[in-house]
Specification:
With about 325 residues, the chain is of the alpha/beta class. The chain is about 40% helix and about 20% strand. It folds into two domains: about 150 residues, ATPase, nucleotide binding domain (Nucleotidyltransferase, domain 5), CATH 3.30.420.40; about 170 residues, 2-Layer Sandwich (Nucleotidyltransferase, domain 5), CATH 3.30.420.40. The model has no long low-confidence stretch (mean pLDDT about 95). The protein binds 5'-O-[(R)-(carboxyoxy)(hydroxy)phosphoryl]adenosine (KG4) and zinc ion. The site of zinc ion has 6 residues, from helix 4.
Length: about 325
């Protein structure tokens, strides 16, 4: 069964064709970075307009490259920017209607976990999923297709949001996560000890404190981010990243132990972070966990993960008919 996936929840216009949930026949992602760069963040109205301008070409390209008959369309219905989501959902509904094929609504966050499933054939539920993106940071147990239990989430900023805001404060180019990742490679992660928020007794996260700590450090006279810098911007990036990586890996491993889960899947844009990937791989070796990281290109938003989730949702016969697919910008991960 070939599913056409469509993803437009934020600032990537993406389409893909995936066969039986795991064989990628085509994938096309058009990033809007150049549209938003000068604003140092995503401007919702510009995002919607850019999706409208590009969606047809992106779909054509994905379909041409795959050159396969399409049996269903899977589309992100939320969470995300309402206008941006609408472009994908309306396109999917029109496609379903014209081709007389089903349209399957997919939660963007569950999609991020399927990025791990597409690539790793050995991976079978149950497993622990960490989703760390620009808008969300959540820990959930994936017990089976469509059976999720959320055990923790951020109480304030998402991990990616913290990366973006710190980068902004350092006047690094948008998007901040990849900028910090790059610069951190030249810095000393031990240069500054930024606070880690552990919130004992829960599997929740909090990243607003570290963001403020970095901001205060930059503003303080002792930071001496001037001519004869004792601490460089690269050191700040490396030290901030180290603290983020520490919290994300340690809290995830702790949660896996608490629930007796031996497999961990990490997804979402922050999973593309090189230091985070290394830390998870190291921890997995030490603690004897199996860690499944999608290829870096499938960590950030793409439509392969949506098409894959669509296939498994279809298999559980829990898909919606094309008339019921609606945009839901604040959708949480839920059972199908
Ligand atoms: O999943 P995603 O593409 O979009 C959302 O669903 O939000 O995640 C985007 C987030 C942004 O905050 C971006 O700065 C962050 O992921 N990100 C990274 C890296 N690549 C993207 N954060 C840290 N290191 C990276 N290499
Ligand atoms: Zn995402």
């Amino acid at each position: 069964m070939n599913i056409l996936g469509i993803e437009t929840s934020c600032d990537e216009t993406a389409a893909a064709v995936v066969e039986n949930g795991r064989k990628i026949k085509s994938t096309v992602v058009a990033s809007q970075w150049s549209v938003h760069r000068s604003f140092r963040g995503v401007v919702p109205e510009l995002a919607s307009r850019s999706h409208v301008e590009r969606i047809n070409d992106i779909l054509d390209e994905a379909l041409r490259k795959a050159n396969k008959p399409i049996h269903a369309v899977a589309v992100t219905t939320g969470p995300g920017l309402v206008g941006a989501l609408l472009v994908g959902v309306v396109t999917a509904r029109a496609w379903g209607l014209a081709k007389k094929i089903p349209v399957i609504g997919i939660n963007h966050l569950e999609g991020h976990l399927f990025a791990g499933l597409v690539e790793h054939r050995r991976l079978k539920p149950p497993f622990l999923g960490l989703i760390a993106s620009g808008g969300h940071t959540e820990l959930l147990i994936f017990r089976g297709y469509g059976k999720y239990e959320r055990i923790g989430a951020t109480r304030d900023d998402a991990a990616g949001e913290a990366f973006d805001k710190v980068a902004n404060r350092l006047q690094l180019p948008f998007p901040g996560g990849p900028s910090i990742d790059r610069l951190a490679q030249k810095g000393n992660p031990q240069a500054i000890s930024f606070p880690r928020s552990w919130i004992p007794g829960t599997h929740d996260f909090s990243f607003s404190g570290i963001k403020t700590a970095v901001s205060n450090f930059i503003a303080s006279p002792t930071s001496k981010l001037s001519k004869n810098r004792p601490v460089s911007i690269a050191d700040i990036c490396a030290s901030f990243q180290e603290a983020m990586v520490d919290v994300l890996t340690q809290k995830t491993i702790r949660a896996a132990k608490a629930y007796g889960l031996r497999s961990i899947v990490v997804g979402g844009g922050v999973a593309a972070n090189r230091a985070l990937r290394l830390a998870f791989e190291k921890a997995a070796l030490q603690e004897k966990f199996r860690i499944f990281l999608p290829d870096r290109s499938f960590c950030t938003d793409n439509a392969v993960m949506i098409a894959s989730a669509g296939y498994y949702k279809w298999k559980t016969h829990a898909h919606h008919s094309k008339n019921k697919i609606e945009v839901n910008p604040t959708l949480h991960v839920q059972n199908w």
